[in-house]
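Project outcomes to date are best conveyed with an example. Our students and postdoctoral researchers have been running inverse folding experiments weekly, and each run begins with a structure described purely in tokens. The record below, which covers 129 residues, was selected by the lab manager from last quarter's runs and is presented without edits.
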């Protein structure tokens, strides 16, 4: 579903289409894609589009996993595309909020990285609570 979601990206500036699929504990899967803007910083990555939508539609349902795929120059990327720092911070907050590890699947054509928890991708993170 992350691979399919790249088709819904709005990426006229980077031509780098990213799709994310969020699996919830109730079995629901929510997808998102990157949404760019001519005022560049106003755009949002696929991961946060999907996660914020999932958390706003299902505020009481833990997130089990997020899968990410990217498509550019007419094909899916050979290598997995790791989430940016801001997305890592948001995934961490989701993991902490539900006290439930968020599994991360980063899908490239050559390989898929399967990360058991965001703690692996954001060590020594800022945590206020
Ligand atoms: N992007 C994502 O959506 N997720 C990532 O993990 C990396 C980058 C987006 C942001 C921007 O729209 C485009 O990819 C190029 O950086």
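After processing, the design step wrote out the following sequence:
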């Amino acid at each position: 579903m992350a691979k399919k979601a790249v088709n819904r990206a709005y990426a006229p500036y980077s031509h780098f289409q990213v799709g994310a699929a969020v699996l919830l504990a109730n079995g629901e899967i929510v997808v998102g894609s990157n949404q760019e803007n001519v005022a560049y910083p106003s755009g949002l990555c696929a991961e946060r589009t999907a996660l914020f939508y999932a958390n706003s539609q299902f505020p009481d349902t833990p997130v089990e996993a997020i899968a990410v795929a990217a498509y550019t120059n007419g094909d899916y990327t050979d290598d997995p595309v790791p989430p940016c720092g801001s997305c890592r911070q948001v995934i961490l907050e989701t993991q902490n909020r539900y006290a439930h590890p968020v599994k991360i699947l980063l899908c490239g054509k050559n390989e898929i990285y399967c990360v058991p928890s965001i703690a692996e991708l954001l060590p020594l993170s800022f945590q206020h609570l």
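The mean pLDDT is 97. The pocket of tetrahydrodeoxyuridine is lined by residues 11, 14, 16, 18, 34, 36, 43, 45-47, 81, 83-84, 87 (CB under 6 Å). The training component of this project remains on track.
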